[in-house]
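Quick one, probably user error.
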């Protein structure tokens, strides 16, 4: 028994000492894990805010790109229509000229139809010289 006690008691004392050290190390580990969890929670919250901010940034960038495309299209349309303004102004002047001549053209057409109609030469000459020429 004495031989066993000489060998076992120091080992038991060493075991008790190591168990105390293990308890201290486990408490330190639990504290470190608690701090790690707090830091991880903060990191997760910050990552969520970052993701939201990046999504908002992407949304604004997409809106900016769409607005730029619309602006380019509007500028292209305005520039294209600027060339048409000259043509429209010329056509407007031509239409005004045609409208001013419309009554005379109608009168000429009516006179021609009357001249080539069922009337004889004497009556046609009278219409042309007495009435039509005076009206023109």
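Nope, works fine. Designed sequence:
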């Amino acid at each position: 028994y004495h031989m066993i006690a000489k060998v076992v008691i120091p080992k038991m004392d060493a075991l008790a000492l190591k168990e105390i050290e293990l308890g201290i190390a486990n408490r330190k580990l639990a504290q470190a894990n608690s701090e790690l969890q707090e830091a991880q929670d903060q990191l997760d919250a910050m990552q969520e805010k970052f993701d939201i901010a990046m999504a908002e940034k992407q949304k604004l960038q997409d809106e900016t790109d769409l607005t730029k495309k619309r602006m380019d299209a509007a500028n292209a349309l305005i520039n294209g229509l600027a060339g048409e303004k000259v043509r429209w102004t010329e056509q407007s002047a031509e239409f005004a000229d045609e409208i001013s001549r419309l009554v005379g053209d109608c009168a000429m057409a009516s006179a021609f139809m009357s001249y080539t109609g069922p009337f004889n030469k004497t009556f046609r000459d009278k219409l042309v010289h007495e009435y039509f020429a005076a009206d023109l």
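The chain is about 95% helix and 0% strand.
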